[in-house]
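Q: What would this complex look like in 3D?
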Amino acid sequence: MSKPTLEERIGQWRNYLEKWPAVRPADIDELEDHLRSQIEALRQAGLDEDEAFLVAVKRLGDLDAISREFAIEYSERLWKQLVVIAGSPTSPLSSQRDTMLAVRLAVASAVAIKIPSLFGYHLSGPPSDLAFYLPNLSLFVLPFLAIFFGLKRGLRQLDRWFWLAIPFIAAGLLVNLMPFKAGGQTQVLTAIHLPIALWLMLCYAYAGGQWRSHEQRMNYVRFSGEWFIYYTLIALGGAVLMGLTLFIFEAIGLNVEQAIIEWVLPCGAMGAVIIAAWLVEYKQSVIENIAPVLTWLFTPLFTALLLIFVVVMILTGNAIQIEREVLIGFDLLLVLVLGLLLYSISARDPQQPPGRFDWVQLLLVVSALLVDVLALWAMAARIFEFGFSPNKTAALGLNLLLLVNLAWSALLYGRFLAGHIPFRRLERWQTAYLPVFAAWAWFVAVLFPVIFNYR
Amino acid sequence: MEIDKDLVAASATPLVLAILSEGESYGYAIIKRVSEMSDGELQWTDGMLYPLLHRLERHGYVESFWGRSESGRQRKYYRLTRAGAEQLDRQRRQWQVVDKTMKGILSLAIDQAGQPA
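A: Here is my prediction, written as structure tokens for the whole assembly.
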């Protein structure tokens, strides 16, 4: 029987450690580096391969004891493991209570969206009705989501509930008391930015009041991404359901379009917000596997797209067309790139050493920045020439905010890849930047109408 | 001489912080440095250093990053943060008090033991 080689022995040693859920591959890499350093030193002192391996393993100590220490240090890793095995994150009793809570709040928001119709506002009504619904839309559901998190996180103190309520009350008063021109630019901007501003305020409830904690903010970013996936899935299912409903009722000569637009669609869209949030909380481990897969899939694709775009632009010499929509388009591009970046940051184990995927990620950010700078440069003259309309200012402001965020992210990513800083710095930068987005969203929603005279 | 387990454990954190205050380093080098400084008297179970380093990182006293060894292997390095330097300073003062007290009381004990009954 031939003796195992040193590499085989180290492989077996790794296998043994991998059985422990609290010890991550990155931790094993670190220990392996130690083991190999020790073996090299012992070999230089004159020991043969076998002896050196045995002594080095002995010096490293009892692997079970080390793993136990890791388990104490990383209790949250073990916790996740338990969840996957048991299939339920909390005790059956409390999860049942959460389910009931989510269903009740979903029904409540579905009822809330219909209350205005008692006062003659109809979703399928004249444009003036729509002008009422549009800016108010988030106010029919997000307060219920805030209650969901408040109760789930056990917010007891009255003053915390008070802080939680303030943004919603303020928003409700503002959008309904401000003398908007129906369908005007500033009203549409408020309708778009208010949900974002309120969503970021929900971080307070999500974090149980500890919104200053970077970990909690990162968790909220993770939650938002996963919520988006769930909501999209539910919306797809809902669309199929509504399509089929239309079809089968048509078969017996009934047109239910009105019922769907007035009832099924709005109530479903509102309730799904709560249900998606509950699903994220309840089925954490399922999406945790989907989000990284989506980023792995789309990061290289978008990187390729952007690089091809730059090359084509250089080869054909076609400048970027100067339209207002183009600026918004580039905003969306940057939002998307930031979204991919956030997804991969939140799904990444910060202990992991830099890998090939990190280079692709950096390439994505850099190419997006390049494209955006080209676009801004092309548009700069036009922007000043025609003055600042509300839409253009909002689009430009967002673009600059994203540009700053991504440029600094790229710099930090580069430094991380060069081995100068820990990955955590990148996380910190993103979580520290969240209030900037919140402030901007509030600024556009509340002060733009005043500045631009409700245009 | 075998040093008591509790003493080894209590001195581990200030030792690691002090070594990192000399400059960034990695696990194996830290252990070698401890051994050098104590003339081989202070022996750790090597593997136990890593959970400790990770704990110090969670407390924000050190930060880690991945680099390469001379032979090109991936290697995790640690460096002291500002919070870590402050913590080292606190621990140093604590140890000075313990050290002074011990020296005083132990020399008294030696005197008494040395005197004929």
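A: To summarize the key features: The longest helix of chain A spans residues 214-251. Chain A has 17 helices and no strands.
Q: Very helpful, thank you.
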